[in-house]
Amino acid sequence: GEPVAKTEKVGSRSQHWLHRDLRVRFVDKQHKGGQYYNTKMTIEDVLSPDTCVCRTEEGRILEGVKEGMLETLVPKVEGNRVMVVLGPQAGRVGRLLGWDRERNQALVQLRRENQLVELHYDAVCQYTGPNDSDE
User: Fold this and answer.
1) What's the pLDDT tens digit per position in 3-59?
2) Residue 34 CB: number of other CB atoms within 10 A?
3) What are phi and psi of 4, to 5 degrees?
4) Pairs from 56-65 (Cβ < 8 Å, separation ≥ 24)
5) Dihedral angle computed from the Cα positions of residues 76, 110, 20 and 106, in that order, rounded to the nearest 10 degrees
6) Higher model confidence: residue 84 or residue 112?
7) How far apart are CA 64 and CA 66, in angstroms?
8) Does the keyword Metal-binding apply (predicted)?
9) Helix H segments across 54-128?
10) Most buried residue among 16, 17, 48, 132 by CB atoms closer than 10 A?
11) How far apart are CA 116 and CA 29, in angstroms?
C-alpha cells in the first residue's frame, strides 16, 4: 500500500483550478523574498495542472508559478465576469451578481442556461478572457 498515491486520487484538493485569463492574487511570502506577495496578476498560460505562467500588472512575466502560490480573486464590482474553477460547473463563465460576505459566497449568473448559482469564494475567480468563451 502506498497511501500517498491513494490520497492524491481520492482527495477533492486534487481538482486543479488554474486556467488562462484568470486574475489571481500571489500569496507566497517566500518567493523572491516576498517581492510579489499579495500582488494581483493574470494567468497567461497553464504549463501543467498545477503550474502556470503569470503576468503582473506591471507586465512582468513569472514562469513556473505553482497553484499553491496563488489564490482566486473575487471581483469587487457586480457585473464583472468570473469563471467557476471548482466543482461540477468548473470552466463555466458567468457574471457576478452579488456576495454573501458572512458565508463567503458569491452569487453568479451562468451564461448558457441563465442559471443562478451560489458558490464559495474559492470556487470562482475573476475572468479577463475573450467574451465568447462558453457563452
Assistant:
1) 443 333 333 446 899 999 999 999 999 999 999 999 999 999 999 999 999 999 999
2) 11
3) -60, -50
4) 62/36, 65/26
5) 30
6) 84
7) 6
8) no
9) none
10) 17
11) 36
User: What letter represents residue 127's amino acid?
Assistant: Y
Cell numbers 480573486: residue: 73
Every domain of the chain with CATH number 2.30.30.30 lies at 80-126
What Å distances lie between residue 114 and 14, 87, 88, 101, 133, CA to CA?
29, 18, 16, 23, 15
Collapsing DSSP to helix, strand or coil, 99 comes out as strand
pLDDT (0 to 100) of residue 14: 64
Polymer length of the chain: 135
- At 86, the pLDDT band (50, 70, 90 cuts) reads very high
Per the rule left: phi > 0, alpha: psi between -120 and 50, beta: everything else, 114 is left
Give 25-57 as a 3 state SS string. Answer: EECCCCHHHHCCCCCEEEEEEEEECCEEEEEEC
How far is it, in rounded angstroms, from Cα 29 to Cα 39? 11
CATH architecture of 22-71: Roll (2.30)
Class of domain 80-126: mainly beta
